[in-house]
Write a structure and sequence with these properties.
about 0% helix, mainly beta, Deoxyuridine 5'-Triphosphate Nucleotidohydrolase, Chain A, three-stranded antiparallel sheet, globular
């Protein structure tokens, strides 16, 4: 881990359109990903021209995430013009994972020139629940007297 005690998170203020900053402790957070989740279709909510090799922010139908859900993009291309990279949420203060969140933009990397049309499926997001790992290791003893970690 980095020796830095704090990190800076930069975001775009929705009110002033200025880049703002927040300072957070630099700490690793251990978690467990649930094996249960849901697949969410990411659907364009606008028509937009794309150029090969250029990422673009695309408006999408709103995606609602429950508390403690994270997203992983499905690594299989679902659109002829390129690949969904992920949801976009850099406007406004960072949203804590403990709260419900809504995303209405996605980042798409074009591999061909063309037009994404309103209603096109850009890709699939896997939404999975994460659980915090206990801070202290639990030591148990089985019925033979052996330690189980």
């Amino acid at each position: 881990m980095s020796p830095r005690q704090k990190v800076i998170v930069k975001y775009l203020s929705k009110r002033s359109s200025e880049i703002r900053r927040l300072e957070f402790p630099n700490q690793a957070i251990e978690y467990i990903i649930s094996t249960a989740g849901r697949w969410i279709n990411v659907v364009a909510n606008e028509s937009i021209e794309v150029k090969a090799g250029q990422p673009v922010v695309v408006k999408i139908d709103p995606i609602h995430l429950n508390p403690k859900e994270i997203t992983l993009t499905c690594p299989v291309s679902r659109h002829a013009l390129g690949m969904l990279l992920g949801l976009y949420g850099s406007e406004g203060k960072p949203q804590p994972i403990e709260d419900s969140r809504v995303y209405d933009k996605a980042i798409f990397l074009a591999i061909r020139d063309g037009v994404i049309e309103d209603g096109d499926m850009l890709g699939i997001i896997n939404a999975v629940v994460v659980y915090a790992v206990l801070e202290k290791q639990i030591i148990r003893v089985d019925h033979f007297g052996s330690v189980i970690c």
